[in-house]
Every structure is written in C-alpha cells, then in structure tokens.
Design a protein that fits this description.
Blueprint (H helix, E strand, L loop, with lengths): L4 E7 L3 H14 L4 E3 L8 E6 L4 H23 L5 E5 H7 L1 H6 L5 E3 L7 H9 L4 E3 L7 H5 L13 E5 L1 E2 L10 H5 L3 E2 L2 H13 L4 E5 L18 H9 L6 E5 L3 H4 L5 H9 L6 E3 L7 H6 L6 H14 L4 E8 L6 H14 L3 E6 L17 H24 L5 E9 L5 E5 L5 E5 L8 E9 L4 E5 L22
Parallel strand pairs: 1-2, 1-3, 3-4, 4-5, 5-6, 7-10, 10-11, 12-13, 13-14, 17-19
Antiparallel strand pairs: 8-9, 15-16, 15-18, 16-17, 18-19
Helix pairs in contact: 9-11, 11-13, 14-15
The chain binds S-adenosyl-L-homocysteine, iron/sulfur cluster and FE3-S4 cluster.
The site of S-adenosyl-L-homocysteine has 17 residues, from strand 13.
Length: 473
C-alpha cells in the first residue's frame, strides 16, 4: 500500500482562516492526506494567508522562504513537496506570488478550496496553477457535498462559519476585496454541522463571519433568519452548552435586525456574555473618514443596549491608531472612549496602508513614530483594563468548559464564559465537562483555580507562563 500523503496547513490571520484550514484538511482526507504538525515531512504545505496589514503579508513571504528550504531538502531525497498559498494573500496577489517566488506550485483563493484535490493532481504533474476566481457555485454548498469529507470535530469547542464576506468597505480594509460580497449560509446547513459536532462531543460553538451580526440566512421556507433567531435554534441542539459569535459590526447591532440577538443575551443561558465589537476610533471625524457608518455616540448606545439586556456582559474591541488625518485630539477621543466602555480586552493596531483601498491615497498620513507612540498609550489603557478585569474574578466561582490537558501532570485547561484560559487540577475524564471552579490567582495570560468540590488542592502555577499581551499589534 502507498504511504499516506502528509499535509501541513499553517494559518495566519483571523478565525475564518483557522476554520478554512480545517476544512481544507477535511477536503483532502478522502484523497489520502493525513495532517502533520511538521512541515519538513509534508508532501504538501498549505500556507493559509492574511492580507490585512503589511506586516502580515511580510510574514507570509518569509514563511515561504523557510518552507522553500525544506522543499529543496526534500527534492535532494527524491521526494516531491508541493507548496500551496491559500487565503487572502492568494486572493489579492494571485499570479504575482508565483512570479515573485517560483517555489510556490499552487495559488488558491479563499472561495475555491473544494477544488483542491483536482488542482493538486495537476500540480503534482508539474503545472503551476493560480485559481483565485470567485466561484459561480456557492462555496458553502460545494463544501457540504456528501461526497466530500464533512465537518470533523477537533476538540470540545469548535468554529462554524455562518457568514462570509463584507459589503461595508471601511476605507482602510482589504476584506471586501479578498473575501468578496457578504453571503449567509442557509440555516439547515448550519444546524446539520452543529448537530454533527455535538454528536461527536463538541459542547461550545463559535459562529464566525466577517460581519456575523449581519447574518440573514434562509430557513427551509426561504424566509430570512437573523443571528438572534439562529442562536436560539442552535441552543436547542442536544449537547450544545455554549454559543458565541464574532465579529460583529456596531452599525448592524443598532439596525433593528439585532434586536432579538440583544434580547437573547438577556434570556439565553447558552449565549456567552462576551461580545467582540470593533470600534476602531473614538473620534467622529475619523469614524466618518473610515466609512464606519456609525458615530461614537451610536457605538456607546450599542454597548448600553447590550449591557441593559445582560449587565455582566464583557466587551472586546479592535482599534486602529494613526489613520490618515488623525490628530492628537482625535486620538484622545479614542482614549476617552476606551475609558468609558472599560473593555475586557482589545486588539490595537497601527494603521497600515493597503494598496487599492481608498485610505491608501489620502493625504495626511501619520508618521510612524507618532503611530507607535499612540499605540503605546492606548495599549497602556487596554492592558490596565484587561488586568483589572481578570483580577476581578479572584475569589469568584466561574463555570469552566474543560478543554485539554495542561502542562503539568494532573492539570487541565478550560475556558471561562469570558474566554479566559483557566488552569485547574482535575481528572482528564472531565474534559468536555462544564465544572464550577473558584479562581485563586491570575497569571500574565491565564487564571488559576480549584474545583469547587476539592478546594483543598490548589492548582500549582506552571513554572513559566507564556508572556504575551493580547493587546499586541
Ligand atoms: N469585521 C472583521 C474585521 C477584520 S479585520 C472581522 O470579522 O474581524 C480585523 C481588524 O484588523 C479590524 O477590526 C481592524 O482593527 C484591523 N485592520 C483592518 N485593516 C487594517 C489596516 N489597514 N491597518 C491596521 N489595522 C487594520
Ligand atoms: Fe473590513 Fe470594515 Fe468589513 Fe470589518 S466591516 S471586514 S473592518 S470592511
Ligand atoms: Fe486576514 Fe483575510 Fe482574515 S485578510 S484577517 S485572513 S479575512
């Protein structure tokens, strides 16, 4: 029998890419590909790329250089290694990637992954292939064909795409160009995926989409369903204990189509009290120049309405500093907005010029030194807020979904309702269970706790905790 082919998929960028990477591996499984964590031994390396900021693109090209050395070493052993570039850089740069580096065999856009087996067969024969057309058929339909490997479980918490693409055209952003027009999956397909995952032991589902709260998929009668109605439907699936969704747009939150989503936060225990609501800036002038289609006051109103439905809701956000024309006064509006909301966590980015987007040609680009200084000031505020948020749980009891073994023997890692990772001493048979844990201590990016039933045995801290700030750019 032939040796199984090995595929290594590396994801850059957002959760959508993580999800797509899993789907690519699932699509290749019937073709005899098994996944490997080691690129050097792979017959196929897929880089699932991100185009959002210049740095993200640089990372991809330096990774291609690294994999190229492995490909050359494999060739010396008489072994063929194919390199495929997928995702948003593939979509944006297409043929240019193969022109820039001849070690890449295949460039495949984010809507064409279901065609991978056929494309790879051609690439194995030595053809260089670029397939970045947006599809005529529905990508979601293609991935759901019974002939393809359908969704497979990878742990007790899972992503499910419900919506993809974006029609908002924020002036700084490449996503509408790399992911195409907004599109929602039909309800029945999402329910089928969630039921399958639940049957295999998944307890928590994160519904993902670039504009997830603009979801308007169709039900069996062809009627549009909102995200609020969808989460209520999914909460009924036996085994599903927790639901999350990301990323939401503030304007959709206020549009009326999210009234039932906001209400669901008040009365659906399965819906976790943690909402990612990117704001980008606290200045109305900059929000308008960004084409965000909402004001500072409207953003705060969305937060207030969600908090009214569920007072213990925590918010996370994305910020861009140094957008063209941003003055010190505009930036101070961003700082005061952050103070006003008090975020549990936020991602902060320096504005990065993206060729082809409207903001790229604006005058008044902010010098790098100023961007960097503002980034540090904003990060200081956000870091103080997330540290205080985490510390506020010491001595409190939280529900933890136990996900996997920790670094120490006898230790498990779980997630709180607020997505904090929590280390606790517990029996491995409890993975997949939701348990009550009393929080005893806070590390740099994890909490420590004890099971409520055996509070006598506190969880020792691992010697070294990874030092990483979630507020990093
Ligand atoms: N709605 C999307 C946002 C994707 S981009 C979602 O589903 O997540 C994620 C974040 O990257 C944005 O919220 C924004 O803060 C940041 N970003 C996008 N384009 C950027 C640019 N040109 N420069 C700096 N940051 C950017
Ligand atoms: Fe980009 Fe704006 Fe669309 Fe988010 S809403 S993906 S930031 S264009
Ligand atoms: Fe990056 Fe594409 Fe996601 S540009 S953030 S991988 S949608």
């Amino acid at each position: 029998m032939n040796r199984p082919r090995k595929v290594h998929v590396k994801s850059f960028g957002c959760q959508m890419n993580v999800y797509d990477s899993h789907r690519m591996a699932d699509t290749l499984a019937p073709d005899g590909y098994v996944e490997t964590a080691h690129p050097a031994e792979a017959d196929l390396v897929i880089l699932n790329t991100c185009h959002i900021r210049e740095k993200a693109v640089d990372k991809v090209y330096s990774e291609i250089g690294r994999i190229r050395e492995m490909k050359d070493a494999a060739a010396l052993e008489g072994r063929q290694m194919l390199i495929a570039v997928a995702g948003c850089v593939a979509q944006a740069e297409g043929q240019e990637i193969i022109r820039r580096t001849d070690s890449v065999d295949l460039v495949v856009g984010s809507q064409n992954y279901h065609r991978l087996p056929g494309l790879l067969a051609r690439a194995r024969d030595g053809e260089k292939i670029v397939d970045t057309e947006f599809p005529l058929e529905d990508k979601f339909d293609a991935l759901a064909q019974p002939s393809q490997q359908t969704i497979r479980r990878r742990g007790v918490a899972s992503f499910v795409t419900v919506q993809e693409g974006c029609d908002k055209f924020c002036t700084f952003c490449v996503v509408p160009y790399t992911r195409g027009a907004e599109m929602s999956r039909p309800v029945a397909k999402i329910v089928a995926d969630v039921e399958k995952l639940a049957d295999s032991g998944v307890r928590e589902i994160s519904l993902i989409g670039q504009n997830v709260n603009a979801y308007h998929g169709l039900d069996a009668n062809g009627a549009p369903v909102t995200l609020g109605q969808l989460v209520r439907r999914l909460a009924e699936v036996p085994g599903i204990a927790r639901l999350r969704y990301m990323t939401s747009h503030p304007r959709d939150m206020l549009s009326g189509m999210c009234d039932d989503l906001i209400a669901a936060h008040g009365d659906l225990a399965e819906l976790m009290p943690y909402v990612h609501l990117p704001v980008q800036s606290g200045s109305d002038r900059i929000l308008a120049a960004m084409n965000r289609k909402h004001t500072r006051r409207e953003y705060l109103e969305a937060i207030a309405r969600l908090r009214a439905a569920r007072p213990d809701l925590a918010f996370t956000s994305d910020f861009i500093v140094g957008f063209p024309g941003e003055t010190e006064a505009d930036f101070r509006d961003t700082l005061t907005l952050a103070e006003e909301v008090n975020f549990a966590m936020a991602y902060t980015f320096m504005y990065s010029t993206r060729p082809g987007t409207p903001a790229a040609t604006l005058e008044d680009q902010v010098p790098d030194a100023e961007k960097s200084e503002r980034l540090q000031r904003l990060q200081a505020v956000i870091t103080r807020q997330w540290q205080a948020f985490n510390r506020s749980f010491v001595g409190q009891t939280m529900e933890l979904l136990l996900e996997k073994p920790g670094k120490l023997s006898g230790q498990l890692v779980g997630r709180s309702p607020y997505l904090q990772s929590v280390h606790v001493m517990a029996d491995p048979s409890l993975i997949g269970s939701i348990v009550n844990v009393r929080i005893t201590d806070v590390g740099s990016n994890t909490l420590f706790g004890v099971m409520e039933s055996d509070s006598a045995a506190p969880s020792p801290r691992p010697e070294k905790v990874r030092e990483a700030s979630p507020a990093g750019a």
